[in-house]
Amino acid sequence: MSIDIITPRFCETDALGHINNVSYAAWLEQGRTGFFTRNAPHKHSPLMLVKLEINYRHESFHGTDVEVHTHLTKLGNSTFTLAQTIFQKQVVVVEAISVLVRFDSQNKRSLPFDDVSRAHWSALLK
């Protein structure tokens, strides 16, 4: 699992002082970036986000850091599925599922895992 700490900015709030719903997608991206930065064994192929499912569980506010927890739950032929949870004051604010595909940008198609990469990422499955 990977944990990223984010300090909500005032500009991410709405008129009621709640964090605006679009801010969570950016925070989840920061969590995914942190996960791959910390866990990739070497420079990896580009990744393309193909699915993002966000379930809002509780309101959150400016003034208190949030934690974005990210872990790998599934490997496909060329895809990663990540489960992500955002906490504020130990309360679940958001639960999300992200699916990313390894992408060969030159040939415009998905890029399957080789055996070495599959073994590396399989060791991180939760």
How does this structure look, described?
Belongs to the 4-hydroxybenzoyl-CoA thioesterase family. This is Acyl-CoA thioesterase. GO terms for molecular function: fatty acyl-CoA hydrolase activity. InterPro entries: 4-hydroxybenzoyl-CoA_TE (IPR050563), HotDog_dom_sf (IPR029069). Strands 1, 2, 3, 4, 5 and 6 form a six-stranded antiparallel β-sheet that branches. With 126 residues, the protein is α+β, with helices and mostly antiparallel strands. β4 and β5 form a beta hairpin. The longest helix has 19 residues. It has a single domain, classed as Thiol Ester Dehydrase, Chain A (Roll), CATH 3.10.129. The chain has two helices and six strands, in the order βαβββββα. The chain is elongated.
Topology:
Blueprint: E1 2-6, H1 21-39, E2 47-56, E3 66-75, E4 79-88, E5 91-104, E6 109-110, H2 115-122
Antiparallel strand pairs: 1-3, 2-5, 3-4, 4-5, 5-6
Features:
Thiol Ester Dehydrase, Chain A, single chain, alpha+beta, 21% helix, 4-hydroxybenzoyl-CoA_TE, six-stranded antiparallel sheet, fatty acyl-CoA hydrolase activity, Acyl-CoA thioesterase, 126 residues, 2 helices
